[in-house]
Amino acid sequence: MNRSSAVDFPIEALPYGVVAHEGRERLVAAVGTDLIDLDEAADALSGAIDPSLMRSGGLDRLLAAGRPTWSAVRAALADALAGGRLDEFRRPVTRHAPRLAWHVADFVDFYSSMNHAGNVGRMFRPGRDPLPPNWRHLPVAYHGRSGTVVVDGTPVRRPRGQRRGRDGGVEFAASDRLDFEAELGWVLGGSTEPGQTVAPGDAAEHLFGLVLLNDWSARDLQSWESAPLGPFLSKSFATSVSAWVMPLEALEPARVPHPQQSDPPVLPHLALAADGAFDIDIEVWLRVAGGEAHMLSSMNAAGSLYWTAAQQLAHATSNGATVRPGDLFGTGTVSGVERNEWGSMLELSWNGAEPVRLGPALERTFLEDGDVVTLRGGFPGRHGRIPLGPVSGEVLPAPA
Amino acid sequence: MNRSSAVDFPIEALPYGVVAHEGRERLVAAVGTDLIDLDEAADALSGAIDPSLMRSGGLDRLLAAGRPTWSAVRAALADALAGGRLDEFRRPVTRHAPRLAWHVADFVDFYSSMNHAGNVGRMFRPGRDPLPPNWRHLPVAYHGRSGTVVVDGTPVRRPRGQRRGRDGGVEFAASDRLDFEAELGWVLGGSTEPGQTVAPGDAAEHLFGLVLLNDWSARDLQSWESAPLGPFLSKSFATSVSAWVMPLEALEPARVPHPQQSDPPVLPHLALAADGAFDIDIEVWLRVAGGEAHMLSSMNAAGSLYWTAAQQLAHATSNGATVRPGDLFGTGTVSGVERNEWGSMLELSWNGAEPVRLGPALERTFLEDGDVVTLRGGFPGRHGRIPLGPVSGEVLPAPA
Lengths: 400, 400
Hints:
Two copies of one chain form a homodimer.
Chain A (H helix, E strand, L loop, with lengths): L15 E6 L2 E8 L2 E4 H4 L9 H4 L5 H6 L1 H16 L7 E3 L5 E2 L7 E4 L3 H11 L16 E4 L4 E3 L4 E2 L2 E5 L5 E5 L3 E2 L2 E7 L18 E8 L2 E2 H7 L7 H4 L2 E3 L4 E2 H4 L3 E2 L20 E2 L2 E7 L5 E8 H4 L4 H9 L10 E3 L14 H4 L7 E4 L2 E3 L7 E9 L4 E12 L4
Parallel strand pairs in A: 6-22, 8-16, 9-26
Antiparallel strand pairs in A: 1-2, 1-5, 2-3, 3-4, 6-7, 10-11, 12-15, 13-14, 13-22, 14-16, 14-17, 18-19, 20-21, 20-25, 23-24, 25-26
């Protein structure tokens, strides 16, 4: 993995990733600053784990195998690591470029941060209730493009598209309001039958693990295209996810109570008894070409997200739609209450009206070519802090 | 295939499908009322065609291979058929249940019938311009759920979901405004690089073939959920496609001029010189449980669709988003000018206000349990009429 992706994972984290090595993609797990090549380690683990799960070149077979297998594989890995039986399969992470760890089935992007949805409402519908009427009743969502999900480190080309020009006409041009959105992304596994629903209390059967997600957005294209059927080309050019998929088990110590949701009360099929939020911090960094990295904002998922992953899954299956291994659920932009906790340039620059000052002669409203956006996360483990991510991408100029 | 799917294809059609036979899924082509088992025929064709393209259990490898291979395979099949060299691999179509012929990558649903969009506008925004401001400038679209695309003959369970109740509150209930949408669906192949665009004139490189598509819709769920990010659960429970994928070559004799698009003129990246429309007729049939089939409406694609498939593809890639083998583009509901040409119950019953009379004591506003909706299509070939489809699905009751 490239240097910006290099992180130091305690043994209780054990995230999964995929790298290319000797001409083959290999499923790996991360420990410290090393990876364990699970493809090579499969035989050493084979008493406890079906080696074919480790040798398929990615996470897909494991995602299909379901919760009992996920827990068994994780336990076997932890056991073998503690016993020193995987030492010969360790290599420094920095030697490898990351690959997307799984085949993204359907990508659903939610809109679950009340501060974010409120900011958007205040910006574009001033003087009215900032939240749409349905917002507190259900986790609003839409389908994104799964074929353009890319892994940490992949450059992102500025899109062109149709928009309203300054003269009121319609033009086709390179976006000049390119933005990021700081999100979490849940990687799903297992599968359901048509007509089956997943109750919020059963979400762990399908929530395999978590990535950081940057939902790149072209605001000028978005405002022109989105009515009446929602965003399309303003989002579909690229969505970046972190190379490391953090298993749900590693996140359990970070579980905290979720919002009360009493006004209005949630309908029974979305009601969640147990703690449904996760105490995850996210930082947004912007590095300008040839310059230093600036932290634009930082936010906490538990403090920002009204709807939980369990409720999002219950909602998404409430109509009987199936879940497939590899489905990806984005939380939507995670924005806190304060300005320095907002998760997009749209909010930070208040739709371009209030440039963000990064230095004496440096400011931004939206992203410039050469800018590198990096999301970094972290959460409390049992024995210390565990990093999540990072996910990084450089903005390349639009096609000529 | 079941009896309702049995059609009679002239040799110039040669659509592809997939059936299960002796425990294995097999790629097949249809001729008359027979299928040719291409898995079994692969060796007989192997001088002209890589046999692995025929033996992968579906269309996916062929879709990935690209236009020159598509043309070569079709020519080799036609040649071998004419020479009688495939007779031993023929079996009656009716012996087999159809399978979905390919793995759907991303599903994009457009909104390209002006009459349909206009009807929706007149219904829900009376007194204003029925078309959204962007509608004549770009082919409006959104991403649908690819994991719930099902093949002809698959029953569809009535979804439950959130909606506004009659008392103004919010409730979770079985949809009572279940609808169909009569559409065409383009199956795409080949692939593009990030940042690459596909000009309208190059669309044939990626338009592999055509299916009939029923975009099942729950109108009560849709009106509650759709603002601000578009339809989600009101569509995601099921989308039905025909078992037979009609190759673009077979459709060439049906090519006709597309609409002028002069008010406003289309921007250059969407401009299309050659004839972009297809003279395809669609019929919508409704069979009530234990009763006869009634033709609800019939429409012509060329007369109803403002935007062509070539323009939809140019639009979808105009931001640099990639195309993958297996992408599916729905046209959106195809509705003609006259009432008997409308492609949804929403329109035919004018949002439930004007029931459709089917017989002395039989009427419908939306679909009832046990109703079977069947779309049948057809278009002119060089030597006679060629059928397209059918696609059929029975409405099952909502889960208890």
